[in-house]
């Protein structure tokens, strides 16, 4: 089973997209940002930092997720870049 929520309140704010995959013991958090003048890399990293700073993954951890994939997405005009950071529970 999978739960998908948009603008989900979690931690200290709202993540853009929040996915809980029950049978895979995995969760996904996606934060999308506008990259003015094509500053893709820094904006992607800012999105990941926002996920961490606002503790968006806390609910996934509380649900028992051992692996959380954090996606930082930067968009500018018709282009986008995505970075992924994997957080595994030790």
Give a topology summary.
Blueprint: E1 2-10, E2 13-21, E3 26-34, H1 40-53, H2 58-62, E4 67-76, E5 79-88
Parallel strand pairs: 3-4
Antiparallel strand pairs: 1-2, 2-3, 4-5
Task: Describe the structure in brief.
This protein has 90 residues and is α+β, with helices and mostly antiparallel strands.
Q: Any idea of the CATH class?
A: Alpha Beta
Q: From the helix content, strand content and strand pairing, which structural class follows?
A: alpha+beta
- Widest sheet, order of strands: 1-2-3-4-5
From the 3D structure, determine the CATH topology. Answer: Trna Endonuclease, Chain: A, domain 1
**What is the alpha-carbon Rg in Å?**
13 Å
Summed up, the helix count is: 2
Pfam families: PDDEXK_9
InterPro entries: PDDEXK_9
Organism: Catenibacillus scindens
Protein name: PD-(D/E)XK nuclease superfamily protein
Features:
PDDEXK_9, 5 strands, elongated, 90 residues, five-stranded mixed β-sheet, PD-(D/E)XK nuclease superfamily protein, single chain, Trna Endonuclease, Chain: A, domain 1, 21% helix, 2 helices, alpha+beta
Plain-language structure description:
There is one protein chain. With 90 residues, the chain is an alpha+beta fold. The protein has one domain (2-88): 3-Layer(aba) Sandwich (Trna Endonuclease, Chain: A, domain 1), CATH 3.40.1350. Helix content is 21%, strand content 52%. It is built from two helices and five strands, in the order βββααββ. The protein has a five-stranded mixed β-sheet. The longest helix has 14 residues, at 40-53. The protein is elongated. The mean pLDDT is 86. It comes from Catenibacillus scindens. This is PD-(D/E)XK nuclease superfamily protein. InterPro entries: PDDEXK_9.
């Amino acid at each position: 089973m999978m739960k998908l929520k948009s603008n989900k309140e979690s931690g200290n704010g709202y993540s853009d997209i929040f996915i809980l995959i029950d049978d895979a013991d995995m969760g996904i958090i996606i934060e999308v940002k506008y990259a003015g003048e094509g500053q893709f890399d820094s904006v992607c990293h800012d999105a990941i930092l926002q996920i961490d700073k606002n503790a968006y993954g806390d609910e996934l951890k509380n649900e028992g997720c051992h692996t959380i994939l954090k996606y930082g997405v930067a968009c500018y005009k018709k282009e986008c870049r995505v970075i992924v950071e994997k957080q595994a529970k030790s």
